[in-house]
Fold:
Amino acid sequence: MSQQIQRLPAVKFQSGLSRSTLYLRIAQGLWTKPISLGARAVGWPSSEVEAINAARIAGKTDDEIRALVVQLEAARKSAA
Structure:
């Protein structure tokens, strides 16, 4: 399965969130942490961005989205 890593501008566009709101949601556990791509570059797997956006569209609560974020980050570790 081919997975794309999206950089911040693409994630901002796809989610409709500003940079500060995105990082606030990370701190609140409502968005997955970025993956380091190098010394000064980060990104997010496109499947994670799509899953979180779909949960928001479906009207999931913040607690349900936090559980999804935990699940997505755990899947990263098991995929390695």
